[in-house]
Fold this protein.
Amino acid sequence: MNESTEAMRVALVQHAMGPVPEQNLATSLDAIAEAADHGAQLVILPELHVTEYFCKAQDPALFDLAEPLNGPTCSALAECARECRVVVVGSIFEHRAPGLAHNTAIVLDRDGQMAGYYRKMHIPDDPGYYEKYYFTPGDQGFEPIDTSLGRLGVLVCWDQWFPEAARLMALAGAELLIYPTAIAYDPNDPADEQSRQLDAWQIIQRAHAVANGIPVAACNRVGHEPDRTSGQYPAEFWGHSFVCGPQGELLAEASDGAEILYAEIDRSRSERIRRVWPYLRDRRTDAYQGLLSRYRD
Amino acid sequence: MNESTEAMRVALVQHAMGPVPEQNLATSLDAIAEAADHGAQLVILPELHVTEYFCKAQDPALFDLAEPLNGPTCSALAECARECRVVVVGSIFEHRAPGLAHNTAIVLDRDGQMAGYYRKMHIPDDPGYYEKYYFTPGDQGFEPIDTSLGRLGVLVCWDQWFPEAARLMALAGAELLIYPTAIAYDPNDPADEQSRQLDAWQIIQRAHAVANGIPVAACNRVGHEPDRTSGQYPAEFWGHSFVCGPQGELLAEASDGAEILYAEIDRSRSERIRRVWPYLRDRRTDAYQGLLSRYRD
């Protein structure tokens, strides 16, 4: 990374969102300022932090929530990043063109400039999470974003389940994987199933760190959000945001309540770890063609 | 899988190996019989279970340890599989042709027939693990093996660190991933580093279960093996063999001592889990071309 020091302090804003977007944005801005006051150099917000999670029903009116890439959320975050001298990873419902919207992460550098953006590539769709209705899959691939804190591999939520996405970011030089996310328990699931899902969610992301020898930061929402349309799909966002190092070792983990989670990342560890565990050296790129297939039948 | 029942009982033979190959093979055969007596239908042995781990030095004389695919180890395991009516996953140092050797997993069906074999594709090489000297990388790709217990995704040791290998097996219909392995602490590492390595080893393999919605079984060696050449590279094989289900949930985990580990795999869970977590549906096969590159620079 580009800083003279090898340590980087990151903050994950694990907050709950309510029905008023302006209030949610104000909460995000306050948290960025607080994190900066506590020495954070990089502040990560959860997925779609300006709104409640609105994909519980397919409603064309909800596209009114979308805003342009350089819209009001971006402007507010940029101004805040500049004032606080921190790099900010935010998340917006992006209106790209009439009838064309994305789930987009935006990265504002500490001078307030947009360092880059990433349009969510893998889009989920299941009862209460109708994302394929709202979000056109990203068409720009898996490209990390250069910032004053180094090259950030920013992905979004459902991407976290795909080792391919993490690997492609690492192969393009990402020094840290970042996942703004919105993942919740189904309140109808029994406790043991909820526990398996939370564990699986941490394991798969910690494994991206292991496989690629780079740290991972995942920032989730918390709180109960009712289903304001049918009442069918209330969600309990499970929190447990975390940061792990390049061996998948947990550096910090949040509870299931609202908090700002801090962690210190030692940037020099990736080089050391990759020398001992040189997976990039040994990948069988000659034998991976089948990864481009839907199924090998 | 092909059985009428949905439950499968697997046994992992987590044993130590000594300097006499005949004794090691006898130990393996006894363990298969014991596991069968305890109801196992599938018995998995560790990597290179007929010998001590010999890659501690580069010595041309050690190629004498290699044997043909259908050599004495294969014959003995086949006979044992037939007598015990179990499927056996073994591991040999394969002499394929003069000057051409592989690290090969062999699968014997319960009728004693060879169901198939897999030649280790990813080959490690670091101080005390000079595998690139001994083992030519496999040239047959990632092909699962059909048995009377279903389609087995057999991989070997270093493969376990590569999500690509697990994915390719799953895409070819593997119903269970199997890793015979030989992984050890470096006795010179401090306890916290040893702990991170063990955790990383379990996390990455449990994540293959998560990413692909199939169970995983990893069978390691145990015991102290001295370095009989230079004395430089003694190894403490860390055991902790385990079986996890398709959400990465641990079903059984061994200690660091010699034991036969048993687990019940519910074959019907993969279909159920994949319906709820449909990653195969959402893979961006149009955007994965970079996975065929060494590095994206």
